[in-house]
């Protein structure tokens, strides 16, 4: 029997989104999870496609009604996984790939302990720093914060996370093949 739920976690800059975008289209029975958020839509973002956009009050009501698998507040906005989305996809026979941070994964596992965890790691912190700098999208302070967060996230994942698989993303083609193999299980 094929696994139904997969959770990818990675520090910023490890290449998780690139890997996901490269591989997921090869699995027609798999969907990428849509999160709920209280942040305003960015140009071109569509409700129910990119995110489920909620008011702060709506999101807090979902939390109070235990309608979120996991949630967190980041930079003043809430983000989380609605149970209704997960259950709808499963009832339609779909498999679901989630992108959750290592802290959200712990909470996710309380509701869906059968989920397969995939930890995407950079080859080293030095290479991670180089990737973040190469993006040229963040200030020096943001890069430093992302590196500090990466150290904390990796340590937390190693100690508290449930990750059946680890992929060190030092070669995109090899990492993508490893992800394909995992998603085929």
UniProtKB/TrEMBL annotation:
Binding site for ATP: 10-17
Keyword Cytoplasm: yes
Domain spans labelled Guanylate kinase-like: 3-184
GO molecular function ontology, one term from the record: kinase activity
Compartment annotation: Cytoplasm
SMART domains assigned to the protein according to its UniProt record, in alphabetical order: GuKc
Record's keyword terms, sorted: ATP-binding, Cytoplasm, Kinase, Nucleotide-binding, Transferase
EC number(s) stated in the UniProt entry for this protein: 2.7.4.8
Main localization of the protein described in the UniProt heading: cytoplasm
Protein purpose: Essential for recycling GMP and indirectly, cGMP.
HAMAP family: Guanylate_kinase
Protein name, per record: Guanylate kinase
């Amino acid at each position: 029997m094929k696994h139904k739920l997969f959770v990818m976690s990675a520090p910023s800059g490890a290449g998780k989104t690139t890997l996901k975008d490269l591989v997921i289209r090869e699995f027609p029975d798999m969907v990428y999870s849509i999160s709920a958020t209280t942040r305003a839509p960015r140009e071109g973002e569509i409700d129910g496609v990119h995110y489920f956009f909620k008011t702060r009050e709506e999101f807090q009501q979902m939390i109070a009604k235990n309608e979120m698998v996991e949630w967190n507040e980041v930079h003043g906005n809430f983000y989380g996984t609605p149970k209704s989305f997960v259950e709808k996809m499963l009832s339609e026979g779909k498999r679901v790939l989630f992108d959750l941070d290592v802290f959200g994964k712990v909470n996710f596992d309380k509701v869906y302990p059968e989920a397969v965890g995939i930890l995407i790691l950079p080859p080293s912190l030095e290479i991670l720093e180089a990737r973040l700098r190469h993006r040229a999208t963040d200030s020096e302070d943001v890069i430093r914060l992302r590196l500090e967060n990466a150290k904390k996230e990796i340590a937390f994942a190693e100690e508290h996370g449930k990750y059946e698989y680890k992929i060190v993303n030092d070669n995109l083609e090899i990492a993508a093949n490893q992800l394909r193999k995992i998603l085929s299980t």
